Amino acid sequence: MPLRATSPISAIIADDEELAREELKFLLAEIGGVEVLGTAANGLEALDLIARLEPALVFLDIQMPGLDGLGVLRRLRETGEEIPHIVFSTAWDQYAIEAFRLDAMDYILKPVDRERLAETVERARRMVAAQPPESPVESVDEEPESEKGRMPNFTRLVVRAGPRNLVVDQKELVYATIDDGVITLVTSQTEGQSTYRTLEELQATLDPEVFWRAHRSYVVNLNRVREITPWFKSTWQLKMDDKRNSEIPVSRTQSRRLREMLNL
Question: pTM for the whole thing?
């Protein structure tokens, strides 16, 4: 994304109701730290703005003419490119599970509460700050000076296992998966639920040199992969070294990257 946390977070708003667009824009201006680059009245306009303006954050209504908010997110995911952080702002609560399954960052119900929106903006700010800055392509044999000695901001994770909140080092995480909006963390010794709401938010705290998004529903620790086996339609499957030797699918797009990384 072109803007960092030191600058206002770039955003667009897509809603078929003009009053809703203006109210959300007003609240964001009150909260501060967000620059609304443009607004859209339907899903197709939203896709056009996202392609042209490359915002870091997108507020989407669910029900819009032509292409609804969930359809916008599905189309963005189909491109295989990096997508903005998506926040659904809607009067309909029944789509929340599907939204989080598609890795939406947040889901806010109308009428939008200012304090609730401020929490979302702060979460987005943290996630944008955790993204590494863009840099020119470096030689694979030469480590950039800015990366030497750099450590991730967070090295500990909370795993909710029954009544217990276990604190583990992230290097112990074998993989994370999301299902029905719930993230499960699997470590070498235990497994339980994550305190994060989306895989994207979790991944922003992990070491990008170690943790890889193998599939839209899985983040894996590359150091804990035990075996790589061919799967269907030229994809691959990863066997992990947790207690159950879990098998993780690799998406078609990431299978191509895996072949390039390992010369398969």
Answer: 0.51
Q: How many residues belong to the chain?
A: 264
CA 201 to chain centre: 5
DSSP-based three-state secondary structure for 175: strand
Taking the C-alpha atoms of 77, 179, 206 and 37 in order, what is their torsion angle to the nearest 10 degrees? 40
- Closest C-alpha to 38, from 30, 23, 49: 49
Instruction: Using DSSP bridges, classify how beta strands 106-109 and 85-90 pair: parallel, antiparallel or unpaired.
Output: parallel
Residue 1 pLDDT exceeds 70 = no
Q: Which of 58, 53, 70, 194 is nearest to 120 (CA)?
A: 58
In the chain, the domains with their CATH numbers are: 9-130 (3.40.50.2300), 156-262 (2.40.50.1020)
The answer, yes or no, to whether residue 134 has pLDDT greater than 70, is: no
How far is 60 from 86, CA to CA, in rounded Å? 7
